[in-house]
Amino acid sequence: MNRPSLDGLSLERIVPPLSADAWRILPWFALATLLLFWIWTPLGWVGVAATLWSASLFREPARAAPLDPVAIIGPLDGVVIEVGSALPPVELGLTGDEVRCVSIAVGPWDSHVLRAPIEGHVARLSTLYSGQDERVALRMSGPAGETGMIVSAEGWGRRVRLSPVEGSRLRASDTLGVLLFAGHVEIYLPAGLEPAVMAGQRVVAGETQLSKPAP
Question: Domain residue spans in the chain?
Fold first, then answer.
């Protein structure tokens, strides 16, 4: 059923829905806000602002993936911080020479929802947690070949939450989970593709095309 609209503008475009993961985090912000109000009212309003900011990180607006079936699309809102070539990390299970890769960092005002970069199935999924930093490796098989993704969360706590498991079938732009508060994503492109973005460019998760055929 379509959501209500205002003068032809979908309410979802004004107030995007929140990821299901939001309800694991927001109650803690709300509880802290009540405690701050009890301590000192001005502190409580700081807590309200922090709760609203936290909620904004979980917004999950509708996105339209490119029609190109072999396109690799952005998995996270943010800015491209590096474009280059590298050997894929061993945890992805990709063998061979260096491949082209794109690194994207999420900003404090971006949606932190992670999305599938291709249509295909999850061939490999592993997590490495050192006690402070968390690193999740996900490899997907699709029409263009094997695409690798490393999700890194810098700082204390487990902050990468993914819902798929190995073998899950996904469409391009499907929600994978969230990257909480700070981190970046590295995408390792299949052979035959090269980056279609450059450092400093903004990426819209589920929509921005990261790859193009190599000449």
Answer: 5-57, 78-213
Which residue is associated with the tokens 């450092």? 199
Q: What is the mean pLDDT of the chain?
A: 88
User: Which residues are 78's β-sheet partners?
Assistant: 203
Q: Which residues contact 114 (CB under 8 A, 6 or more apart)?
A: 75, 76, 151, 162, 175, 176, 177, 178, 179, 185, 205
- pTM for this predicted structure: 0.87
Q: Which residues contact 176 (CB under 8 A, 6 or more apart)?
A: 75, 114, 115, 116, 138, 162, 163, 164, 170
Residue 159 has pLDDT above 90, yes or no: no
pLDDT at 13: 52
Residue type at 12 in one-letter notation:
E
Given a contact cutoff of 8 angstroms between Cβ atoms, the answer to whether 175 and 115 are in contact is yes
Select the CATH number that applies to the domain covering 78-213 from these four: 2.60.40, 3.40.50, 1.10.8, 2.70.70: 2.70.70
Partners of 140 in the beta sheet? 122, 147
Token pair of 79, please? 């800015």
Asked whether residue 17 carries a pLDDT value surpassing 90, the answer given is no
CA 57 to chain centroid, in Å, comes to: 11
Question: 116 is written with which tokens?
Answer: 């599938």
DSSP character at residue 116: -
Question: Distance (Å, rounded) from C-alpha 92 to C-alpha 66?
Answer: 25
